[in-house]
Write a structure and sequence with these properties.
CATH superfamily of the largest domain: FAD/NAD(P)-binding domain
Distance between the termini: 37 Å
Structural class: alpha/beta
Helix content: 25-40%
CATH topology of the largest domain: FAD/NAD(P)-binding domain
Bound molecules: flavin-adenine dinucleotide
Length: about 325
């Protein structure tokens, strides 16, 4: 479909984000004959498209994230979902109506009867040289997803909060050693999380260090650490670096319309409805999300089924008002 046509259309559903959450929603809305537009600012597939090994999605033995999401893309396109590659800057309610106006980075607007926010949340990337080069090749931000690839290997975990300890503890079942590297000598994690991790034989901690550089040859071989007090640099051999220094939810373009928690994660009910009628959310952007692809896709499907009911209820209401006016 041409861009001009997209701009002139009143879409049944506009989905912000072309990851598993967005495509899970699109599968159900477009298959129910609702006109569906996914707006994606980078590339279809979302975070998972950057992972080269996925083995925990039902019916998929082993696939690259890219391969899997390309299949999702083809599937939703088959049912009529359209894609638009733009950054959504702000969503507004149309004054005097129930529609939404989706403001794009080029200053144009898309009109929608319902919205699914599936914009995900990005793990805060480690500010270390080599991080980009080894992302997905030894550098990871997801222990559940990638931990099993580091069986009997040496792992570095970066961070000092609850997730660094919890995810690090999870990694101790795989790694020969798991070394937590933290820039301070005190931690934000709970005593329970610390106690559990420290109870593992293969758990180590290095405090007052930052990771300056990640290096290797195709995959990670080691890190260069800097002591935060002395500035001294040292090398440490490792096969993997897991960063848990926080996530950055991407909900800023819609947070003025809906309830979020203090970090920006969206609060939803069991139907994935947000506090604003007409707006749903799905996937990693949801408060308390377990940040897994199967969950994101399921959230999208849940939202889509509810949207179908919401839109048909609105149509019935309009017909009744029309009939009463006749
Ligand atoms: C290294 C790594 C490995 C992983 N491995 C696995 C695994 O093996 N199995 C598994 O189940 N899960 C895995 N995950 C988790 C999985 O990637 C996420 O749970 C899943 O991608 C979340 O889907 P989502 O659709 O909610 O969000 P995302 O995948 O983050 O997609 C959101 C999309 O929204 C777009 N977007 C954001 N803001 C805007 C905007 N304003 N305008 C337009 N577009 C916007 C983004 O560009 C992005 O494409 C892994 C994650 C990481 C980081």
């Amino acid at each position: 479909m041409q861009y001009e046509e997209m701009l002139s259309k009143r879409w049944d559903t506009v989905i912000v984000g072309g990851g598993p959450g967005g495509m899970g929603a699109a599968l159900y809305t477009s298959r129910a004959d609702l006109s569906t537009l996914i707006i994606e600012k980078q590339f279809v597939g979302g975070l998972i498209a950057l992972t080269h090994e996925v083995e925990n999605y039902p019916a998929v033995d082993f696939a690259s994230g890219l391969d899997l999401t390309q299949k999702m893309e083809a599937q939703v396109k088959k049912f009529g979902t359209e894609f638009l590659y733009k950054d959504v800057l702000k969503i507004e309610r149309d004054t005097g109506g129930s529609d939404f106006l989706v403001n794009l980075s080029d200053g144009k607007q898309i009109r929608a009867r319902s919205i699914v926010v599936a914009c995900g949340s990005a793990p805060r990337r480690l500010p270390a040289a080599g991080e980009e080069e080894f992302y997905g090749r030894g550098v990871s931000y997801c222990a559940t997803c990638d931990g099993a690839f580091f069986r009997d290997k040496d792992i570095v975990v970066v961070g000092g909060g609850e997730s660094a300890f919890q995810e690090g503890l999870f990694l101790t079942q795989f790694g020969r050693s798991v070394t937590l590297v933290h820039r301070r000598d005190n931690f934000r994690a709970t005593e329970l999380a610390k106690r559990r991790a420290r109870g593992k034989e293969n758990w180590k901690e290095m405090t007052n260090y930052t990771v300056e550089e990640i290096y290797g040859n195709g995959t990670v071989n080691g890190v260069k650490l800097r002591h935060t007090e002395t500035g001294e640099l040292s090398d440490m051999k490792t096969d993997g670096v897991f960063g848990f220094i926080g996530y950055e939810p991407a909900s800023g373009f819609v947070s003025h319309l809906i309830d979020t928690d203090e970090e920006g994660y969206i609060v939803v009910d069991g139907h994935m409805r947000t506090s604003c009628p007409g707006i749903w959310a799905a996937g990693d952007i949801i408060k308390g999300s377990l940040k897994q692809m199967v969950i994101s896709a399921g959230n999208g499907a849940t939202a889509a089924i509810d949207i179908r009911e919401y839109l048909s209820a609105m149509e019935e209401e309009t017909e009744l008002v029309g009939a009463a006016g006749d």
